[in-house]
Specification:
Helix content is 43%, strand content 16%. It has helices spanning 87-101, 105-122, 130-137, 145-162, 174-203; strands at 4-5, 16-19, 26-31, 38-40, 43-49, 58-64, 69-73. The chain is flat and about 65 Å long. The relative contact order is 0.10. Bound molecules: zinc ion.
């Protein structure tokens, strides 16, 4: 868990160690001046500010009297660089990341699968089913075999998410989705972003 309470007093106002959803930095978030936390039952509701002077992003936090932080808003999203990735594909993966941040893991699995569908469409990989389209993608893009195996696993995870009767995976939870998102990012990086990095390095060579 990326949230923990550094200290706690009975009037609320705990300093919280958080990862900032706005700038991505980890820091100790202080309460906003003149805004006290609100006590509701055993919960405290408060507002915090990112300590990074380039950010000062704002967060709402919910934490328990025993010092356990339950949620913060906006939720922290896994970072993702959409550079050179076609807009439709980047938008679909971004939606998978939002679902993950909000702990909607089944919805996230469906969006990961859709990201693969979009990739096949962009590369004009043909076939009646996603399985067949992924097979034909092998002749459209050059990737390590492991990434093609990963795509097939992501397809199965998406199947489980979309169809009640499909049960390849025991469950679709945080771990499955975080692994799925990491692999999807690697696939997109290999298909769309590696060329750009190589060109950048080549441009730095002595002519
Ligand atoms: Zn920040």
């Amino acid at each position: 868990m990326y949230i923990k309470v550094l200290n706690f007093n009975l009037g609320g106002g705990a300093r919280l160690s958080l990862s900032c959803p706005h700038c991505g930095h980890q820091g100790t978030f202080e309460p906003l001046q003149n805004i006290t936390d609100v006590n509701v039952g055993h919960l405290w509701l408060g507002q915090r500010k990112c300590p990074n002077p380039q950010c000062y992003g704002h967060l709402f936090c919910i934490y328990e009297g025993n010092g356990n932080v339950l949620r913060s808003y906006p939720a922290l999203r896994i970072d993702f660089d959409p550079k050179n990735i076609p807009e439709r594909i980047a938008k679909t993966l971004a939606e998978a990341l939002v679902c993950h941040a909000e702990q909607c893991f089944v919805a996230s699995a469906i969006m990961i699968r859709r990201t693969l569908e979009e990739l096949c469409e962009d590369k004009k990989a043909q076939g009646d089913t996603l399985k067949e389209r992924l097979q034909s993608l092998r002749s459209a893009v050059v990737l390590p075999n492991e990434l093609f195996v990963a795509m097939d696993e992501l397809r199965l995870l998406g199947n489980d998410a979309a169809h009640i009767e499909a049960k390849t995976y025991n469950s679709i939870g945080r771990e499955e989705i975080e692994a799925g998102i990491s692999l999807t990012k690697e696939i997109l990086k290999a298909v769309y972003q590696l060329d750009d990095l190589v060109k950048k390095l080549q441009a730095l060579k002595n002519q």
